[in-house]
């Protein structure tokens, strides 16, 4: 489970990954899974991709995005992604074309309502909203990373 939050040019995410076992094996959480990926750093094509949901389709999307080797978007069933580039914020949710996000703040993932509630408050950053999700949703946890296009980066622990 994941939360990806956006505000003021920053994408922020936590690092918890949840693995569901069979009935008798239970659920495991690990707190060191990257959810933000920077591509084409230092170029006009630079983008930051935030991945939520199933990791395999998310990883395939990251490899595909911007490479232009294939025009067809890979199958993304179970994945939900946000892409921040110089033209704005884009949501990819399983279709071949993204939707542009025109809101001042936005979030995807298991704790979206918590994040949006926090982001609504003036002065709250994307990073702080992710910390609020960690405090109130058991499927969010670990390190918080917030990136902005260019050189802006914040890494923090709760």
Fold and architecture overview:
With 158 residues, the chain is an alpha+beta fold. It has a single domain, classed as Glutamine Phosphoribosylpyrophosphate, subunit 1, domain 1. It contains three helices and twelve strands. The strands form three sheets. Strands 10-1-2-11-12 form a five-stranded antiparallel sheet, with helices on one face. A five-stranded antiparallel sheet has the order 5-6-7-8-9. It has a two-stranded antiparallel ribbon with strand order 3-4. Helix 2 packs across helix 3. The longest helix is centred in the C-terminal third of the chain and has 11 residues. The two termini are 17 Å apart.
- Percent of residues in helices comes to 10-25%
Mean pLDDT over the residues: 88
The CATH first-level class comes to Alpha Beta
Question: Radius of gyration from the CA trace?
Answer: 15 Å
The total of beta strands comes to 12
CATH topology: Glutamine Phosphoribosylpyrophosphate, subunit 1, domain 1
Q: What is the H level of CATH, i.e. the homologous superfamily? A: Aminohydrolase, N-terminal nucleophile (Ntn) domain
- In this structure, how is the largest beta sheet organized? 5 strands, antiparallel
Structural class: alpha+beta
Q: Order of SSEs, N→C?
A: EEEEEEHEEEEHHEE
What general outline do the C-alpha atoms trace? globular
How many angstroms separate the termini? 17 Å
Per DSSP, what share of the residues sits in E-state strands of 2 or more residues? 35-45%
Given the structure, what is the number of helices?
A: 3
Largest sheet strand order:
10-1-2-11-12
Number of discrete domains = 1
CATH architecture: 4-Layer Sandwich
Residue runs with pLDDT of under 50 for 5 or more positions: none
